[in-house]
Specification:
Layout: E1 5-9, H1 17-21, E2 32-34, E3 40-42, E4 56-63, E5 71-75, E6 78-85, H2 86-94, E7 101-102, H3 107-110, E8 112-119, H4 127-141, E9 145-160, E10 168-169, E11 179-185, E12 188-196, H5 198-205, E13 213-215, E14 223-229, H6 245-253, E15 255-271
Parallel strand pairs: 7-15, 9-13
Antiparallel strand pairs: 1-5, 2-3, 4-8, 5-6, 6-8, 9-15, 10-14, 11-12, 12-14
Helix pairs in contact: 2-4
Keywords: Signal
Signal peptide: 1-32
Pfam family, one: DUF3738
């Protein structure tokens, strides 16, 4: 499983699936084999067809062991989720901040579940296909019904800083998928964004913020860039340490992250129930 894993992240800690799993926006691994005719043939590690709309062929859902660490694993066309709340799953599946999910019962935040299933189509699903699979699972097994509204919420708006953006346009990406990857070291954070639109960037940054992040730059296209910052709650005396996230976004990217109130998509839960039996 480890060799096949293209998405793996602890979702329980600050919903980092957006930053590393999304979400994070993992690029499928392709292994080619030589056929008898001399042509290259795709192995089972090939990406799922881009126009595929997969569902779970089979899926088991059970209450999670409270002591287990949350994980999100995609290997081949198998999907394993461990120790996640339903709010975590909805947040990932519909690409929203948890504060954009309203009207749900209290157990959505407290009860955790394990899900083990496989897609009904071959190949490694991309981010959006995994999200589609989870949406269908939530509807079929949890009876999820919801509708969208626009509501004024406390948000962080990404706008252009004085002097304009400091971003490098992306060359054409093989799979057309955005990627976000990085690490923390000594309390400092670094994230590499490849082939990201500004909406992709906003989505990824929600993992580090206490409210939804909305793109208001109106910048078209996709970009490659690196962001380095020191979290506000991490004291540092190291020379050359990067600044806090608000200053880093402005100095390194030519963008501004501003706390404000504005319209944001909200998912209103109309109905949901504990999962049906396997």
């Amino acid at each position: 499983m480890r060799a096949n894993c293209v998405v793996r992240e602890n979702l329980h800690k600050a919903l980092l699936f957006f930053a590393a799993a999304l979400l994070v926006f993992a690029t499928p691994v392709v292994i080619a084999q030589q056929s008898g005719t001399g042509q290259q043939t795709a192995s089972p590690m090939s990406p799922m067809a881009a126009d595929a709309h997969p569902s779970f062929e089979v899926a088991t859902i059970k209450p999670a062991d409270p002591s287990e660490t949350g994980n999100f694993i995609v290997g081949g066309h198998r999907l394993v989720i461990e120790g996640q709340t339903v709010n975590d799953l909805i947040s990932f599946a519909y690409a929203v901040h948890r504060k954009q999910i309203v009207n749900g019962p209290a157990w959505l935040e407290t009860e955790r579940f394990d899900i083990d299933g496989q897609a009904d189509q071959p190949g490694v699903a991309n981010l959006h296909q995994v999200q589609e699979m989870l949406q269908k699972l939530l509807q079929d097994r949890f009876g999820l019904k919801l509708h969208r509204e626009k509501r004024d919420l406390p948000i962080y708006a990404i706008t252009l800083a004085k002097g304009g953006p400091k971003l490098t346009p992306s060359p054409k990406n093989t799979y057309g998928l955005p990627t976000q990857s990085g690490h923390g070291q000594g309390g400092q954070q670094q994230r590499k964004f490849t082939n990201n639109s500004m909406s992709d960037f906003a989505l990824g940054m929600q993992n580090y913020m206490d409210r939804p992040v909305i793109d208001e730059t109106n910048l078209p296209g996709r970009y490659d860039f690196i962001l380095r910052w020191t979290p506000d709650n991490v004291p540092t005396t190291e020379p050359g340490a990067p600044p806090g996230i608000f200053t880093a976004i402005q100095e390194e990217l030519g963008l501004k992250l501003e706390a404000t109130k504005g319209p944001a998509d909200v998912l209103v839960i109309d109905h949901i129930e504990r999962p049906s039996a396997n």
